[in-house]
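Ex. 9. Protein: Threonine aspartase 1-like isoform X3.
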Amino acid sequence: MSTEEEVKNVFVAVHVGAGNHSKLNESSYKDICKKACKQALLLLKARCSALEAVTAAVAALEDDELTNCGKGSNMTVTGTVECDASVMDGETLHFGAVGALSGVANPVVIASRLVEEQKLGPLPYGRVRPSILVGKGAQQFCVDRGIGITDNLVSVAALKTFRHYSRKCLKSETTNCTHKLKKRKLEIEESTLSLSSVNQSPSADIPRADAIHDTVGAVCVDHFGNVAAAASSGGIWLKHAGRLGASAVYGAGCWAQNQMSDIKTGVAAVTSGCGEQLMKTLLAKTSCDSVRSSDNLTHSLANSFKDSFLESEFLKPCNEKFAGILLLRTVQNENREGMFNKLYRKRIEKVCLTELYRMRIEKVCF
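Predicted structure tokens for Threonine aspartase 1-like isoform X3:
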């Protein structure tokens, strides 16, 4: 099979998160996205699965300190790094996720490992294999499988921004985190984790405009028409230690289902935005459910955002609502030739600019 034919029937798209992304770093974000896509395409050309490819794409994003995941993750209110990640395989419908995981540079790889192990069936004596692991249990899972744990995933930029926002919190008399931060004031000012103790990288000089951003993600279609989705996040700055984000929650951070029939198309999606809002609305799943059986993709997705997110009864107390979604839909004919909705193929090209995900959901035009 020629390279052109191999590429025609596979697809990958990535995003690098919501938040304030500086125009000065736009080219760097594009480079990160291109690198992640190239990693995935190498696997897809070799006839690897969508699950393997989407995991590789997100792992590449985790390896760059400019993103808020893996090595570049935001820090908690107690000065630690806790990552969330998830993967969903559209072929088997298995879901794997890790939450509040410290010391692992590529949490998405662990989430993918959970999916792969679920394919092996039940454990002895009928014990059910886990789909989600958190904290120390997730760490032990890694140790048992020979996956290394490191004590320090803090980047220079993350440490600088942690100190910046911690001090701002300390000066505020109304913030909910003031009491806890006061107890850690000396630790912030005289942290044993000095700037010289962490690896220097280009991201150390990131403008403050890039200080807050969120989940990264990828969606993929392999040569056989299987879809997969993966998400990873370090969470928001100064989050509560132990907080579980949308990236580790079933139906909130990512979703993927293969095509079942002419009226049940293949879908894959990853979300980004306010984690608690994404979890309350299960935005990834509800969006995929809405577009999967619709003839008008644009109309159905717009209605889904309106009914299931903007006007959701679960979000009535929220004055502001933040969300974005990267979604693809596949349709295959009898010859197994994949076709992608043209609108979303065009929109995906713009995701590298990250501008779509900077917008508030009220301003997103479909």
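Check your answer against this statement. The two ends are 37 Å apart (CA to CA).
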